[in-house]
Specification:
Layout lengths: L5 E4 L5 E6 L7 E7 L2 E9 L1 H11 L1
């Protein structure tokens, strides 16, 4: 996996990592880790969506 373009601490002890999506879109992939469990969301998320997510959970 490539290096994240951003790493953010979320409420509740979770960590959000944002990766540039170099696939078919100019969006971002998201990865959330908490208590040793990781959930990945495929690309296509816009910068505005990432900002909204951060606004809700930081």
């Amino acid at each position: 996996m490539t290096s994240p373009v951003g790493t953010y601490e979320l409420r509740g002890g979770a960590t959000l990592r944002v990766f540039a999506d170099h696939g078919d879109s100019d969006g971002y992939r998201l990865e959330i880790t908490r208590d040793g469990h990781t959930v990945r969301y495929d690309g296509g998320h816009s910068a505005r969506e990432v900002q909204a997510f951060l606004g809700l959970f930081t």
